Amino acid sequence: MSQTAVPVSRAATPSHNARGHVQVDRVTKTFDTKDASVEALREVSLEVGEHEFVTLIGPSGCGKSTLLRIVGGLIDPTGGYITIRGRSALEAQRTKDIGFVFQQPALLPWRTVVDNIELPFQLNKGSGADRLCSTEEILALVGLGAFAKAHPYQLSGGMQQRVAIARALIFDPALLLMDEPFGALDEITREGMRYELLRIWGQSRKTVIFVTHSIPEAIVLSDRVVVLSPRPGEVREVIDVALPRPRTMELESTAEFVRLADHLRHLLRA
Q: Helix or strand or coil: residue 21?
């Protein structure tokens, strides 16, 4: 059985000094427009350890999504470099070692849940990509086993996003990149989804880099929170979230949670 379906107990936060999975070294990104050049990122350096959950947070336009896309090999940096387990981002992408989840689930309405999850495998069949997880395993992992034959219009927003997460896991990638995946959901659904993601992450043991604007979301999910400055985005501070795991909703009323939230709020307003 694939690693994805094996439950893992995580009693404590993993050390970010563990063997690096993602290395971001002095990454700069400038976009050239017809009228001017816009510097989105400046000299960003960051190491993400194996199985670590790291969240990027910062003001709008600070380059969070740009950095995520550079890590995923979707766009090139202007300067600096990215390595993923010692390989380039493009090489990791070619070997299906990266999964992407975006704000919109982008499900095909005429396909069932199963067919939407299996779409990447079907599209890559001729490329020699190996399928390491069965659809049944993934459906069980995201809690949608009873909805395999449903169509997207029959699902809630949160369930649709779980389908998108399942689709990103079809090749069992070691690295999951998530760009505001709950940003389009209402607040109640969003709150529930962050704990659903924690459950999935606790079983799948993926390395996750997650982008959000939500301070509570960043604290609940993360081992570390990386705070970026206004554009051009630079690393303002990296905050360890030394809260015990597994995490529950009650954690959000604790003094340490409130202290971390206040600190993050101060950094974002500075």
A: strand
